[in-house]
Design goal:
By secondary structure, this protein is of the alpha/beta class. It has a six-stranded parallel β-sheet. Strand 4, helix 4 and strand 5 form a beta-alpha-beta unit. Helix 1 packs parallel to helix 4. The longest helix has 26 residues.
């Protein structure tokens, strides 16, 4: 019983720390390069919501990028027991109680200054929100249902609808003269 109470307290401390990290990252965000043209594209994906990653590469290629300029990183609440070779993934276990990330590949992804980052989720998730907030991406796109403080552009489209998703992203990147 006492162990469960301690775990519950640690989880609450961790979530509070994540929210503080997110707020701190939002306050210190650099907006000076927000209008740069699209040369690199990143996707931060909630794997419980979506797992067809090839379509992200297809979108990037259709926007005129080469596959090497497109990166996909996923968040999963808890890692599946099945072995996987995928390295571009982080779980809630890789955040310490202070909300710091203990995953070098995730740190490298977040430190890369993508011209555009698309947060592929439609709900608020403290772990994913912290990742998006900490990203050094110059311009961030999200979807209705996510925390709008994190994004420069919110799209009112179902991200699972491939045609609508591609059309909306392309339309707004053209309007914003990124492509």
């Amino acid at each position: 019983m006492r162990g469960k109470i301690m775990l519950s307290m640690l989880k609450k401390i961790k979530l509070k720390s994540l929210k503080n990290q997110t707020a701190k990252s939002l306050e210190s965000r650099d907006f000076s390069q927000r209008n740069t043209p699209l040369k690199s594209l990143g996707f931060l994906v909630d794997e419980s919501y979506f797992d067809d990653f090839e379509r992200f590469y297809d979108l990037g290629v259709s926007l005129g990028l080469q596959r090497k300029d497109i990166r996909v990183f996923t968040f999963m609440e808890t890692r599946k027991k099945l072995p996987t070779l995928r390295q571009n993934q982080i779980t809630n276990k890789e955040f310490n109680w202070r909300g710091d990330i203990n995953n070098q590949i995730a740190r490298e992804f977040l430190d890369f200054d993508f011209d555009v980052l698309i947060g592929f989720t439609n709900t608020e998730n403290d772990f994913l929100d912290a990742l998006i907030a900490q990203s050094k991406a110059k311009f961030k796109i999200g979807f209705n249902g996510a925390d709008e403080r994190l994004f420069d552009l919110m799209l009112a489209v179902d991200p699972k609808n491939k045609a609508d998703f591609k059309a909306e992203v392309t339309k707004y990147l053209k309007i914003l003269k990124k492509i």
